[in-house]
Specification:
10 strands, alpha+beta, three-stranded antiparallel β-sheet, Jelly Rolls, four-stranded antiparallel β-sheet
């Protein structure tokens, strides 16, 4: 199910190397961790379910909170961006899906713990949130935002035909110190701050620290 010859997940030296890359870059891409044959199976089961996906458009600030009435509408905290996405939730993923096997893989979980420097990793308490399959047909995007979680794990199933570029600004804020990075946020939203891009292909597993890294996915 996973290419552990290319990515020896239980090897301590490999874990250390990956942790150093994640700490330095805020992102880690495991190229081709899931073989193409498995990706094809996942796509074959997921693609026909696009009609069952929940699609929604929303406007939000980059902090994913409500506006602060004590601040001006054009303050970085209150500036609004657009997200438009669709997904099927965990309860819509087949019980025998390869996604479930990958999600529960003990070697992968152990690897994630080692790389993240945590003792254990658990499923979401929300039964709908553990595995989500996102759909991004033409015109969909994820607006600039910070994550509420300390990390996210993403597996790319299909490459976008156009757009769909993952852009990010590392260390745009320091939430642990209460520094919200308003100047950086303004500069990014004004299009005058340099951004980095993360390139990955179907079968790549991406580990991303998004709590303090401002990021988005450009329109498809």
């Amino acid at each position: 199910m996973l290419d552990t010859d290319r990515h020896p997940l239980t090897d301590v030296a490999y874990q250390t190397s990956c942790r150093e890359r994640l700490d330095a870059d805020g992102a880690l891409v495991l190229n081709g961790l899931v073989p193409a044959s498995i990706i094809d199976k996942i796509v074959a089961e997921a693609a026909p379910r696009i009609g069952d996906a929940f699609f929604a458009d929303s406007t939000h600030n980059v902090y994913l909170t409500g506006p602060d009435p004590c601040l001006a509408d054009d303050h970085a905290f209150n500036r609004q961006v657009l997200s438009s996405k669709g997904l099927i939730a965990d309860d819509q993923v087949p019980h025998d899906s390869p996604l479930r096997t990958i999600y529960a893989d003990p070697e992968l979980r152990g690897f994630l713990c080692a790389v993240l420097g945590i003792e254990s990793i658990y499923a979401y308490d929300d039964p709908l949130s553990s595995i989500n399959v996102h759909f991004a047909p033409h015109g969909r995007e994820l607006g600039w935002h910070f994550d509420n979680s300390s990390f996210a794990v993403t597996l790319l199933l299909q490459a976008p035909q156009a757009g769909g570029i993952f852009e990010y600004v590392p260390a745009a804020r320091a939430s642990g110190r209460g520094e919200q990075g308003y100047e950086t946020v303004d500069a990014v939203l004004d299009g005058i701050h340099p951004v980095e891009t993360l390139t990955f292909a179907p079968g790549d597993l991406v580990l991303f620290r998004g709590r303090d890294a401002l990021h988005r996915v450009t329109p498809t």
